[in-house]
């Protein structure tokens, strides 16, 4: 299982990273995609919507089950990865390249986990 050092994480198994355009990208971790199995559908939060840290903001469905996406921070959603609408399996293939949505945090991001902290959370 991969946990890249350059990313930050949430306890709800999202990775986040700042993007050069000033926004942040979010996706699900390798651990989460492995638990879900073959992903068949992604419902991302709508661009322009406000999301609240820790609250459900979208859905990822696999052949096994569905799982809520929980907002990583209080933020405004900027865009979604349209490619995942037709090829959600990209998350299984490259979970750290297949971002699900981009967002602009309301304030300076806090409360995110480092790679080591996320690894410790997983045990």
UniProtKB/TrEMBL annotation:
Name the CDD domains for this protein.
GCS_H
PROSITE patterns recorded for this chain? BIOTINYL_LIPOYL (PS50968)
Sum up the protein's function in the record's words. Answer: The glycine cleavage system catalyzes the degradation of glycine. The H protein shuttles the methylamine group of glycine from the P protein to the T protein.
> Carries keyword Cytoplasm?
no
Q: Give the modified residues of type N6-lipoyllysine.
A: 64
Binding partners and assembly:
The glycine cleavage system is composed of four proteins: P, T, L and H.
The record ties this protein, via Pfam families, to: GCV_H
Mind listing the UniProt keywords for this protein, alphabetically?
A: Lipoyl
Stored SUPFAM superfamilies: Single hybrid motif
Sequence ranges assigned to domain Lipoyl-binding in this UniProt record:
23-104
| Cofactor(s) essential for the protein | (R)-lipoate
The UniProt entry's sequence similarity note says: Belongs to the GcvH family.
HAMAP family tied to this protein: GcvH
Q: What is this protein called?
A: Glycine cleavage system H protein
Q: How is the cofactor bound?
A: Binds 1 lipoyl cofactor covalently.
